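User: My collaborator sent over this chain with a note saying "see what the structure looks like." That's all I know about it. Can you take a look?
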Amino acid sequence: MRRLATWRRAWGLLGDFRYEQSDPARFYGALADDTAAMVDALAPVDGAVVLDVGGGPGYFADAFTDRGGRYLAVDPDAGELRAAGLAHRTTVRAAGEALPFADNSVDIALSSNVVEHTPRPWEMADEMIRVTRPGGAVIISYTLWWGPFGGHEMGLSHYLGGHRAAARYTARHGHPPKNLYGQSLFKVTAAEGLAWARQVRGARLVAAFPRYLPSWLWWVLRVPGLREVAATNLVMVLEVGE
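Assistant: Without extra context I'll predict from the sequence alone. Here is the result:
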């Protein structure tokens, strides 16, 4: 994964982020390709059953199937599933906290930028471990609240507080933000995720790194406090045991 973590990649994704609202296909298409490349570098996708928890509109499906993966997705929000008008060939409407799959039934369980939108994220993470076969990988990536992108479309005003940021956004744009604090956006930290990963039963943490930073800046994750702001997005990779 380190070979992929370059400044060029970081700047490219940052540039595409500007189009999240105006041209979501551009942004999420680039993010899907980047996510599939990241997962493939951590656990081979070719021939693997990949479960995407919180798959949303379906942008990730082609990126993983193009790499030879057998892609499945779950998402609880019918509106989100229809948002892009894409065909949901292998998507199930279900909550991540109660995945409708048997134990040990997938090779890779992925959650990309979903934890911060889930009121009980570590229950979802426990479920991802349950459905992943021994030797398989669970990969969880999420946006850190205290980082500059923690407020999502509300910008840096989330540092004033989640509810105040939503009010400011509504006053400025004439409508509430897509991600309402306390309803569809929650404060989540690197410390919480790492604490869960280090004590969870049935899997062991094998890697943790800032998703969008170049590899030479990964050291920030070792510094409590600083990592909550500078890491911006945390990736945790777990190997499921017997």
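A starting point for your reply to your collaborator: The first strand starts at residue 49 and ends at 53.
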